[in-house]
Specification:
alpha+beta, DNA Polymerase III, Chain A, domain 2, 3 domains, nine-stranded antiparallel sheet, eight-stranded antiparallel sheet, elongated
Length: 361
């Protein structure tokens, strides 16, 4: 293998894939990235056997070939180099990297020992806007569970409702859902939240479209020159839609920034009570009370347009996470009673909602 590539392109590709390389795996080669020429381009790949990412970049190829090299060393080294042309040459499983100022070699392992990068030969394919998918992932991935005791809750659920693709995540205490738009495809699959997080980092503001292909075992996301393939989570996702109320006895519409600020202040006093805060809606305002038996008590309020009245006790961290996920200036805070689910939704964006289960006060 002998080629030339820009430092900028190679550093970007390594940054895309290297985080998937697993130094703690029992297979040492999984700590490497695969560097190979394909179709007159340079391909950089990494996998942990559950997720595989490939980034293809332009290069001037004089001789084809392939090698695997340590991901962290390769990424740190290339990102430390100045911008300009890098010359890569492979001899005896050593990858030589040369610039005007540097001459280095990295010991590699033959590419034949690297796992075959997964492909999906047959399956369902559909497309979605890159900006819309990126926004959806940023608003829902954090709501997935980190507890492997219930594997289905550790993923992001893509499915079709009424001809519209919907993405959702829940840890059973909170739920985030966003609609991605109309689609003729019939969609139902569960992506690990870690893979969804990697996909979120991959999608750039310049990307226009994401092509999604999936079968019963894997899903492939194609984002411009980057391919991410993930193993799907098996199991039936809970029927979360039945938890979402159709109407509410109490609704408060207020500035998101005001709601977030009074929640953050109240959370300081809620640490002793495992983050528990009591939210009261009445008389044109939303007020939050938090009590710390050893430190004191705090009540904070914000003006709101109110319909009905009531109070509910929530986990302050969940509420802060939810409010941080919303865009726009105003949100609606809706509930029916102390023990009923609370819904937070945007006053201007009907595609997204967040549900938080109450605490027993």
């Amino acid at each position: 293998m002998k080629l030339q590539v820009t430092q900028e392109n190679l550093a970007k590709a390594l940054g895309t894939v290297a985080r998937v390389a697993n130094t703690r795996n029992t297979l040492p080669i999984l700590a490497n990235v695969l560097v190979q020429t394909a179709d007159n381009r340079l391909s950089i790949s990494a996998t942990n056997l559950d997720i595989a990412i490939t980034h293809r970049i332009g290069s001037k190829i004089e001789k084809t070939g392939s090698i695997t090299v340590p991901a962290r060393l390769m990424q740190d080294f290339v990102s430390s180099l100045p911008e300009g042309i890098l010359k890569l040459e492979l001899t005896d499983n050593k990858l030589h990297i040369t610039t005007d100022q540097y001459k280095s070699s990295i010991n590699g392992i033959a590419a034949d020992d690297f796992p075959v990068m997964p492909v999906i030969s047959a399956g369902s394919t559909w497309k979605t806007g890159a900006a819309e998918l990126k926004k959806a992932l940023s608003q829902i991935v954090f709501a997935a569970s980190g507890d492997d005791a219930r594997p289905v809750l550790t993923g992001v659920y893509f499915h079709t409702i009424g001809g519209e693709v919907v993405a959702a995540a829940t840890d059973s205490y909170r739920l985030a859902e966003r609609k991605l738009g109309k689609n003729k495809a019939s969609v139902s699959f569960l992506v690990p939240a870690s893979a969804a997080g990697d996909l979120l980092r991959i999608i750039s503001d310049a990307d226009k479209e994401v092509v999604v292909t999936h079968d019963d075992q894997q899903v492939l996301f194609q984002v411009d020159d980057i391919t991410l393939v993930a193993r799907l989570i098996e199991g039936n996702y809970p029927d979360y839609r039945k938890l979402i109320p159709n109407k509410f006895g109490t609704v408060a519409k207020l500035a998101r920034s005001d709601f977030l600020n009074i929640t953050k202040v109240s959370a300081l006093f809620a640490r002793e009570a495992a983050g528990s805060i009591t939210i009261k809606v009445d008389d044109g305002k939303v007020s939050i009370n938090a009590i710390a038996s050893q430190l004191g008590e705090n009540t904070a309020a914000a003006e709101a347009e109110v319909k009905g009245s009531g109070e509910v006790t929530l986990n302050s961290r969940y509420l802060i996470d939810a409010l941080n996920a919303f865009g726009g200036e105003k949100v609606e805070f809706c509930f029916n009673g102390k023990l009923e689910p609370c819904i937070i939704r945007s006053a201007n964006d009907p595609k997204y909602l967040h549900l938080i289960m109450p605490l027993r006060s």
